[in-house]
Amino acid sequence: MFKKIFTAMIFVFTSSFAQTFSPKENYASVNGLKMYYEVHGNNPHKPVLVLIHGGGSTITTSFGTILPMLAKHRTIVAVELQGHGHTADIDRPETFEQDADDVAALVNELQIKQADFFGFSNGGNTAIQIALRHPHIVNKLVLASTFYKREGVISGFFDGMNQATLNVMPQVLKDAFLHINPDTSELLAMFNKDKNRMLQFKDWTDDAMRSIKAPTFIINGDRDVILTEHALAMSKVISNSQLMILPGEHGSYIGVAESPNPGKKKIEMTVAMIEEFLDASVSNNK
């Protein structure tokens, strides 16, 4: 039971792990970090969309299914955070606040004045912190299967995590990391830092969430690790927001492999709704 809960929240991956892309692959020096990022698509007429992966994941393992769909209509900048994928770890703990500062520094380095941000799972927590700490660079937010209070996840999640070991990490995700970086000690370091970040998480206040003014699209599965009522509460506290609850588990609506495949049409529908939200004028949002 706990293994399913823990892996769903902290380590998310997609069925298209083996899918190949032809992106522009780059590194940028930000806050002492050599951050890896990819650029997909090219549409100068729409805001850049920044993709932020889930904990323990990579660009491909979080967004491999939907990235090609999104890149058809806009420019995508997809990042890999500290200690994940191609971005090497450095001697500092992981926090959502630090991740947010790193992504914001990358956006500034790329001379992007304002962008849309799409964060999945732990990447959604990072996206929230970008909106709180760097609101001037945020045009719109997409928050998929994420939370802002500890009570927002299913019962037993935090208690069980305290006992978690590397063995609960799905093999496909271990393989993804080791394919990029064959050092198993660094895989363990990433696991432990991700785990500690969650264990040390403290609630973000409703007042802080109310300060988010960017139009926000909140997405959740009806059998998600994030409680439906928490997603609803978040949509109420962020005034300029919309909420979509979809049938499925944590991230299944964008094609993550640890959840049952909902079918191509459901994933395409999700992407269509995300694009409709991003393309809508601000005046058309709640």
Largest sheet: 8 strands, mixed
Task: Give the N-to-C terminal Cα separation.
Answer: 38 Å
Would you list the SSEs in sequence order as H and E? Answer: HEEEHHEHEHEHHHHEHEH
Return the average pLDDT rounded to an integer.
Answer: 89
SS elements, strand count? 8
Radius of gyration: 17 Å
Uncertain parts: 1-21
Strand-pairing-aware structural class: alpha/beta
Number of helices: 11
The helix fraction, in percent, is 25-40%
Strand order, main sheet: write it out.
1-2-4-3-5-6-7-8
Beta percentage is 15-25%
Shape: globular
Key traits:
single chain; 286 residues; alpha/beta; eight-stranded mixed beta sheet; 8 strands; 37% helix; globular
Structural summary, described in words:
- The chain is of the alpha/beta class and 286 residues long.
- The chain has helices at 2-10, 59-63, 67-70, 96-109, 122-133, 157-161, 171-180, 184-199, 206-210, 228-237, 264-279, and strands at 24-30, 33-40, 49-52, 76-80, 115-120, 138-144, 216-221, 241-246.
- It has an 8-stranded mixed beta sheet with strand order 1-2-4-3-5-6-7-8, sandwiched between helices.
- Strand 7 (216-221), helix 10 (228-237) and strand 8 form a beta-alpha-beta unit.
- Helix 4 crosses helix 5.
- The longest helix is centred in the C-terminal third of the chain and has 16 residues, at 184-199.
- The chain starts with a helix and ends in a 7-residue tail after the last helix.
